[in-house]
Specification:
3 domains; 30% helix; Rossmann fold; alpha/beta; 7-stranded mixed β-barrel; Ubiquitin Conjugating Enzyme
Length: 584
């Protein structure tokens, strides 16, 4: 067990033997602006410079959970002002020591932890002063761009949706969101379907989308902090870095007194990074100036030259970027298109797991309305009770995966096949989780006759989920479900034929009403079933085999024994929670 107090004492005593160190109380501001007194370790260090050695004061912020966390190290205000700006030191004077997500800490050596951190800080300062690491600015350019260099500095976040295919400098259209989404108003993108779906996502949330002109300046390699831009400094920056298009810039600026957006880019490790400026609108009326003689450039350079310009920092809002940031890979495979017919407990939970794949299009089909008794084992919640299941599932998908094109039909899959079977055949797979024999057999007949031209993956469940069954059937294979039946009963059932035929065995539960019967099974059983089958399912989708395959999942046999439910002869050869493959 780590003794935090002892660890801090040992580290402080060890540091005192090599450096002048003292504990000081420093007033800091909490997130809500409340002043707090914090104890820091003030350490005197010597930094080698060109003309010899210079003394620096560093402040170590040793947290209460040290040595489980590394101390933060700051430069004193005086020393920071003397050497700013250098790589790996931000405007709050914090020295970026290590990537704490990728470092292993030996908590048994607290003194060594402090020593290594201090050595790292000294090296960063030394390299920065002597310009040995100047190239590191570019590696952390986004962080430096977002730093605050002046009390009136403002940095707004903006989104890049999908790819931003700007090849030549000049005007292009961007979109402005009202109200802001997570503090973001500005979004730019291409004409791709992905970007259009993202805009549809914002519209569905109630955002007003307005097209606005922006101006792409081009690419530059000359970008170093500090990044405090006033109106006049921005004009100077554009003239200096993008002089060849200055005449086009003046036309854009002077076209109106409305707000203006400038975007430029740098190349970093084979990736294009975008930055920008947002110029707030001007009134066009100033004392001592005739309105006819005024334009935006005159206002920026002569009337309001010292007004700070808002910087824009861009974040990619695209499936490729999100996948790379989470999965660590770049999407290279083609996306999938699915039809899911039947959005009950199996179909809805199937949607949840399928949504982890790279899906571009989904067609949802189910005629039923979600009721209270459905919720306990359904993907949806009590918020969706009383609405069609397709509406709730569509909302789940568009809210969590806005890049998926969702089409929904609150009707039977039979109606869809009769009205527009071509839309079904344009997809990759048809998933069936309807639980109605007659409909399933009709659809399999359509597949066998070549009317349906995509593979079908069919799910159905035995009572209490003592058995679950999956069929993967290819089109035009002549498959007939009756070939897998014996005396009208599926030959791979887990519950015995005698039990199904016994009128005293209540496998189907019933409530009041003419249609009150239902198959009992719970959420836990569903999760166990999918945990077993999902690896197979994902391989199936990826490889799309030519042969037909069937699987049987065995549920909880202990539950069957406790309820006196007889297991079939086939099922007796297996244990609980097994997945059996059948070639058919």
């Amino acid at each position: 067990m780590v003794d935090f107090e002892t660890a801090c004492r040992v580290a402080f005593q060890s540091l005192s033997q090599t450096n002048t160190v003292e504990k000081v109380i420093v007033a800091t501001k909490a997130k809500k602006g409340v002043k707090l007194n914090k104890e820091l370790w003030k350490v005197a260090v010597e930094i080698p410079v060109t003309n010899g050695v210079r003394d620096f004061n560093l402040f170590l912020d040793v947290k209460r959970d040290f040595p489980l966390s590394l101390p933060k190290i700051y430069l004193s205000e005086e020393d920071y002002d003397a050497i700013k700006y250098i790589p790996h030191v931000d405007t709050s004077r914090n020295i970026c020591l290590f990537d704490q997500e990728n470092i292993k800490i030996d908590t048994d050596r607290p003194a060594e932890i402090v020593r290594v951190c201090l050595q790292r800080a000294i090296k960063i300062i030394t390299d920065g002063i002597n310009q040995n690491n100047a190239s590191d600015f570019k590696d952390e350019i986004i962080a430096y761009w977002e730093n605050k260099y002046h009390t009136e500095d403002k940095v707004f976040s903006a989104y890049i949706g999908d790819t931003l295919e700007i090849k030549t400098p000049g005007k292009f259209q961007t979109q402005f969101l009202t109200p802001a989404y997570s503090g973001v108003n500005i979004i730019v993108g291409s004409e791709s379907n992905i970007y259009k779906r993202l805009l549809d996502f914002f519209k569905a949330r109630g955002h007003k989308i307005e097209n606005r002109d922006a101006f792409y300046l081009g690419c530059t390699d000359n970008l170093k902090p500090p990044f405090h831009f006033t109106n006049s400094k921005l004009l100077q920056f554009i003239k200096s870095e993008f002089s060849h298009i200055w005449s086009e810039v003046t036309v854009y600026l002077n076209s109106s007194f409305d707000s203006k957006i400038f975007i430029f880019s740098i190349s970093l490790k084979e990736e294009t990074i975008f930055f920008g400026f947002y110029i707030h609108p001007f009134t066009g009326s100033y004392k001592g100036w005739r309105q006819q003689s005024l334009n935006t450039i005159k206002i920026m350079s002569q009337l309001k030259p010292t007004i700070p310009v808002t910087r824009l920092t861009f974040e990619y809002f695209s499936p490729e970027r999100i996948t790379k940031r989470t999965d660590g890979i770049v999407l290279t495979k083609d996306s999938y298109k699915f039809v899911i017919a039947g959005l009950g407990s199996i179909g809805s939970n199937l949607i949840f797991y399928l949504s982890g794949l790279n899906i571009s299009d989904v067609i949802l089909v189910d005629p039923d309305i979600l009721s209270i008794e459905n919720v306990n084992r359904h993907l949806l919640s009590f918020n969706e009770v009383g609405d069609y299941k397709v509406n709730g599932i569509a909302n789940f998908l568009t809210t969590n995966f806005p890049f998926i094109q969702v089409e929904k039909h609150a009707k039977s899959i039979i109606s869809i096949l009769e009205e527009d079977i071509s839309s079904i055949n344009e997809m990759d797979f048809l998933f069936l989780a309807i639980g109605k024999d007659a409909i399933e057999k009709y659809i399999l007949q359509c597949l066998s006759e070549g009317k349906i031209t995509i593979p079908i993956i069919l799910f159905w469940i035995e009572p209490y989920l003592l058995g679950a069954h999956i069929l993967y059937i290819n089109p035009k294979t002549g498959f007939d479900l009756r070939d897998l039946e014996i005396n009208g009963v599926y030959k791979y059932n887990i519950i015995s034929d005698n039990t199904y035929r016994n009128p005293e065995q209540q496998l189907m539960l019933r409530e009041a009403g003419c249609q009150g019967s239902y198959t009992p099974y719970g959420r836990e059983a569903i999760m166990k079933f999918f945990a077993s089958f999902l690896p197979i399912l994902f391989t199936l989708i990826r490889e799309k085999p030519e042969n037909n395959i069937a699987w049987t999942y065995t549920g909880d046999y202990n539950l069957a024994n406790s309820m006196n439910i007889e297991i079939s002869d086939f099922g007796k050869d297996f244990d609980s929670n097994q997945l059996i493959n059948h070639s058919i």
